[in-house]
Amino acid sequence: NAGVTQTPKFQVLKTGQSMTLQCAQDMNHEYMSWYRQDPGMGLRLIHYSVGAGITDQGEVPNGYNVSRSTTEDFPLRLLSAAPSQTSVYFCASSSLAGAYNEQFFGPGTRLTVL
Amino acid sequence: SQQGEEDPQALSIQEGENATMNCSYKTSINNLQWYRQNSGRGLVHLILIRSNEREKHSGRLRVTLDTSKKSSSLLITASRAADTASYFCATGSNYGQNFVFGPGTRLSVLP
Predict the structure, then answer these.
(1) pLDDT band at B4 (very low <50, low <70, confident <90, very high)
(2) Which residue among A59, A99, A104 sits closest to B31, beta carbon to beta carbon?
(3) A97: burial class by Cβ within 10 Å (0-12, 13-18, 19+)?
(4) Which of A49, A84, B50, B86 pairs with B80 at a CA distance of 20 to 30 A?
(5) A101 touches chain B (CB under 8 A)
(6) How does pLDDT run across B22-62, given as a tens digit for each residue?
(7) What are the φ/ψ torsions at residue A65 (nearest 5 degrees)?
(8) Do A98 and B99 touch (CB under 8 A)?
(9) Helix (H, G, I), strand (E, B) or coil at A97
(10) Phi, psi (5° rounding) for residue A83?
(11) CB contact at 8 A, B22 and B72
(12) Minimum distance, in Å, between the CA of residue A82 and any CA atom of chain B
């Protein structure tokens, strides 16, 4: 049981490049979410999903796209990377009604945009 | 705007002492959760307290919730060097839309 996995662990992009951060969970959780963490701040919710085919925006969705074609996977796409997107990105999952249950976090992806 | 705000921002104590961190929030919640983050790692869930609960214990952790004051506290008793980490409170209201983390308290436990 691997829990929540994220790839890559580190990534350096140039401004304007696009990429996809991968997230997968093997706990059959319906709820998955993406957060970004910046120095001195807590985690901010980017996008979340309550099940396959259902996604919605969080607090800071601009510049990011998500899709949820399967229960297990929830990739985050950066369409045109900007230096302001330099951050650590965390994926999390939980059983249905994520706000009511503990979230399980992946180890994070550290992204630098030059 | 951030829902949860932890206080203090940083706390340094000696091993064996108790550590208390506070969290304040602004709007109605269904539950409040505390997480720990070791340096460079993901967050680990510590404890969840629901809005109709006032106190909860888990091992050396004690969490209180005062919905009238919109505040919570996390007490770690008999702290250990391994407790050195950042601690975050997170509040949940709607279906994940308002699951918001505070900026965290950095706890240092000195041996």
Answers:
(1) low
(2) A99
(3) middle
(4) B50
(5) yes
(6) 999 888 888 899 999 998 888 999 999 998 999 999 999 99
(7) -125, 150
(8) yes
(9) coil
(10) -55, -30
(11) yes
(12) 22
Q: Output b/e per residue, A49-79; b: 16+ Cβ within 10 A.
A: bbebeebeebbbbeebebbbeebbebbbebe
- How far apart are the C-alpha atoms of B102 and B91, rounded to whole Å? 9
User: How far is the C-alpha of A101 from the C-alpha of B6, rounded, in Å?
Assistant: 21
Question: Which pLDDT value is given to residue A98?
Answer: 46
Q: Does A103 touch chain B (CB under 8 A)?
A: yes
A102 Cβ under 8 Å from any chain B Cβ: yes
Q: Which residues of B touch A98 (CB under 8 A)?
A: 92, 95-96, 99
Structure tokens at B90: 């997170």
**Averaged pLDDT for residues A49-78:** 95
According to the per-residue pLDDT averaged within each range, which of A44-58, B3-17, B82-96 is highest? A44-58
Cβ contact B96–A98 (<8 Å)? yes
pLDDT one-digit tens code per residue, A26-41: 999 998 999 999 987 7
Specify the DSSP class assigned to residue B2: -
Quick one: pLDDT at residue A9?
Answer: 96
